């Protein structure tokens, strides 16, 4: 659990691909998203403190390592939206600054970076405030969609990009945020193809069920 950063080839620690599959009324939908440690050379050495300090290693190599990582993601998934959830200040803030600066040269229509200070905005209970993040990324989610086939196996929609989410350990904050993107695609799929009641995303994010799910994730 203490593995951090990436190696010189751009392979990130704690990298996980998650696929959400839904079936209803003859349709099968799939959405793939990923998580992984911030993809440059840094480490966190275990000691007796509550929050061990972070060290950025070989800082001059960060842009090239990060570029290798994102180009590999592009080959697999198409467009990539990097959602960075770490704190703005303190040790996490130093990592955020290095991440934002290192990714800047490769930002494009197909590689985007969004920082969202999860702890400052949401704290430990206000998960409905993730609607602020949703407002920043909804255009990307709408554009790159999800994979969908009908009961004849005919492709109706195709996913053309993924969301790459990280915090420090890629656990609680990342879990809650991936629930957000999952809910969006469930919401979109059912509203379009299953004739639901067309409730808004803001309704889902403010619902007691969503807050309950998020609390279960972080507790």
**SS element count, helices:** 7
Radius of gyration: 18 Å
Q: Fraction of residues in helices?
A: 40-55%
Looking at the structure, what is the overall shape? globular
End-to-end CA span = 17 Å
Mean of all residue-level pLDDT scores: 86
Q: Give the domain tally.
A: 1
Please report which band the strand proportion falls in: under 5%, 5-15%, 15-25%, 25-35%, 35-45% or over 45%.
15-25%
Q: Structural class, from secondary structure content?
A: alpha/beta
The helix/strand order is: EEEEHEHEHHEEEHHH
The largest β sheet comes out as: 7 strands, mixed
Low-confidence stretches: none
- The counted number of beta strands is 9
Pfam family, one: Syja_N
Protein name: Phosphoinositide phosphatase SAC6
GO molecular function: phosphatase activity
Structure description:
This protein is α/β, with parallel strands linked by helices and 219 residues long. The protein has seven helices and nine strands, in the order E-E-E-E-H-E-H-E-H-H-E-E-E-H-H-H. Helix 1 (62-77) crosses helix 2 (90-103) and helix 5 packs antiparallel against helix 7. The longest helix has 22 residues, at 172-193. The protein is globular.
Question: Topology of this protein?
Answer:
Blueprint: E1 16-24, E2 27-35, E3 42-44, E4 54-56, H1 62-77, E5 79-84, H2 90-103, E6 111-115, H3 118-122, H4 131-144, E7 147-149, E8 155-157, E9 161-166, H5 172-193, H6 201-206, H7 208-218
């Amino acid at each position: 659990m203490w593995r951090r950063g990436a190696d010189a080839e751009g392979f990130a620690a704690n990298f996980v691909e998650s696929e959400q599959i839904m079936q209803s009324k003859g349709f099968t939908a799939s959405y793939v998203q990923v998580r992984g440690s911030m993809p440059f050379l840094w480490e966190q050495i275990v000691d007796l403190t509550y929050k061990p300090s972070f060290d950025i290693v070989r800082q001059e190599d960060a842009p090239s390592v990060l570029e290798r990582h994102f180009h590999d993601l592009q080959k697999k998934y198409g467009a990539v939206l990097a959602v960075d959830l770490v704190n703005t200040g303190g040790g996490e803030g130093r990592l955020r600054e290095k991440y934002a600066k290192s990714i800047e040269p490769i930002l494009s229509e197909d590689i985007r970076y969004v920082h969202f200070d999860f702890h400052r905005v949401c704290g430990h209970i206000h998960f409905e405030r993730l609607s602020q993040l949703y407002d920043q990324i909804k255009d990307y989610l709408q554009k790159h969609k999800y994979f969908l086939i009908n009961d004849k196996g005919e492709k109706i929609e195709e996913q053309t990009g993924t969301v790459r989410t990280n915090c420090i350990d890629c656990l609680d904050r990342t879990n809650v945020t991936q629930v957000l993107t999952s809910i969006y695609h469930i919401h979109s799929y059912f509203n379009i193809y299953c004739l639901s009641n067309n409730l808004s995303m803001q309704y889902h994010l403010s619902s007691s069920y969503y807050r309950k799910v998020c609390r279960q994730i972080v507790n």
